[in-house]
Amino acid sequence: MMVTNPLDYVEPLGKAGASGFTFHVETSKDNWQELIQMIKSHGMRPGVALNPGTPIGEVYPLVEAERPVEMVLVMTVEPGFGGQKFMPEMMDKVRILRKRYPLLDIEVDGGLGPSNIDMAASAGANCIVAGSSVFGASEPAEVISLLRSSVQKA
Prior knowledge:
Layout: H1 7-16, E1 20-24, H2 32-41, E2 45-50, H3 60-64, E3 71-75, H4 91-100, E4 105-109, H5 117-123, E5 127-129, H6 132-135, H7 140-153
Parallel strand pairs: 1-2, 2-3, 3-4, 4-5
Helix pairs in contact: 5-7
């Protein structure tokens, strides 16, 4: 959730049945521990998103905390709207995270599709968010299958 105060959204999303809640590290520097605890207390899996311009070290304390996030989302576009071009230089962040945290779920979001999924999967991403490449495809199921297969192979 790219919102100013993610704490305001935890309870309503938990009550609505959400299984996970991912917040942006940039909006939660002062209250991430409380936020993670609240997410978990509402039965959801906590994750943290990292924007392209934010140093990777910003998420280390959240992954290494006593009550850690369970997933890191590396944004491969600037958040805000769909259809943007994939930023391959963000794969360095994915590789660093995978090396440092071999068992961590690492998600990538933004501009992903058949032409770059292998790059993301081989860098260490094991969760993929794909919007335009799936919903804009004439055969969405084929695109989903290709994306899934690439991640499973890696």
